[in-house]
Amino acid sequence: MFPELLIGSYGVTGLLVLFLLLVIGIIVIIFVAKVAFFVLPAAVIALVVWWLTGGNEVYAGIAFLVIAVISLAKR
Asked: In the Cβ-directed half-sphere of 59, how many Cα atoms lie within 13 Å?
């Protein structure tokens, strides 16, 4: 009917850039969510170990690395 009303003042190039940025944003959000779900179990275990050992960061770090390696091995 009226293409200039449907596209608006952005033009075709502006809409393509907008769509591209939207796709990139969705990919980044998915990546961040996957990283968070990968790190979350190891972080919880490390926090519990840190709390049980009275704040020993070495043991907490070792626990974090062990759980992270186990998570990688399961995939």
From this structure: 11
Between CA 71 and CA 49 the distance in angstroms is 18
Per-residue pLDDT of the chain (75 residues; tens, 9 = 90+): 555 555 566 677 878 888 999 999 999 999 999 999 888 999 999 999 999 999 899 999 999 999 999 988 987
Give the count of domains, the chain: 1
Q: Is the pTM of this model over 0.70?
A: no
Contacts of residue 49, Cβ cutoff 8 Å, sequence gap at least 6: 56, 59, 60, 63
